[in-house]
Amino acid sequence: MSIRATLKAFFTTGKGVVRGLTEEEAGTDPFTLFDRWFREAREAGLYLPESMALATSTADGKPSVRQVLLKAADDRGFVFYTNYDSRKGLEIAENPYGALAIHWPILQRQVRINGAVEKTSTEESQAYFDSRPRGSRIGAWASDQSSVLRGRNELERKFRETQARFASGDVPLPEFWGGYRVIPKTIEFWQGRANRLHDRLRFTRDGAGWTIDRLYP
């Protein structure tokens, strides 16, 4: 983080604790609230405010979790990109349901999301892939994500070979790579408060709208 970002983060510490989260402030649309919280996390100078934990599980319920990056969020859901043959991709194929947790510790805020998971369209995946640096696009081709790697040298060799393969043109979207969208069934907003009397508001999808419940901390 830059010195400026560090200072911004320092002066933001505890901001949400004093203000709290009321039903009136939350409103009736969780995506509007999420947009506001995400914007405030960016403005606070946090490093990678788009980082989120993604939990998936096998068909027989064995879970796994890892950090991914949020690349889009709108009323359709929350999008991240990965190798479809990775562990997360194979688990989503078996059990297309997932959970996300986003934590902004300086603001003492969390957002938890649960819902079905589906692939983004090829057009969406293509648009995002084209926006990545060339090295990252080559890396997507070179990595058999989650497979056993015999050594760092093997990965670097595959990267060089892929560089040579696409030396004279653009790097195309791999058929094994693209986006997933978590379509929320529930979205919970957690705001830390004094004496551990935290605010927790849970939005549950109810037809075209949402039901809102306040939960004990």
Low-confidence stretches: 5-12
Number of separate strands: 9
Q: Write the element-wise H/E pattern from the N-terminal end onward.
A: HHHHEEEEHEEHHHEEE
| Number of spatially distinct domains | 1
Please count the helical segments: 8
Corresponding CATH architecture: Roll
Compute the separation of the termini in Å. Answer: 32 Å
DSSP strand content: 25-35%
Could you explain how this protein is built, in words?
The protein is an alpha+beta fold and 217 residues long. The protein has a single domain, classed as Roll (Pnp Oxidase, Chain A), CATH 2.30.110. The protein has 8 helices and 9 strands. Strands 1, 2, 3, 4, 5, 6, 7, 8 and 9 form a 9-stranded antiparallel sheet that branches. A hairpin with a 2-residue loop joins strand 3 and strand 4. Helix 7 packs across helix 8. About 4% of the residues have low confidence.
Task: Write a concise synopsis of the structure shown.
With 217 residues, the chain is an alpha+beta fold.
Main features:
single chain; alpha+beta; 217 residues; 9 strands; 8 helices; Pnp Oxidase, Chain A; 33% strand; nine-stranded antiparallel beta sheet
Topology:
Blueprint: H1 3-12, H2 15-19, H3 23-26, H4 30-43, E1 51-57, E2 63-69, E3 72-74, E4 77-83, H5 87-94, E5 97-104, E6 109-119, H6 122-131, H7 134-142, H8 152-165, E7 177-191, E8 199-206, E9 209-214
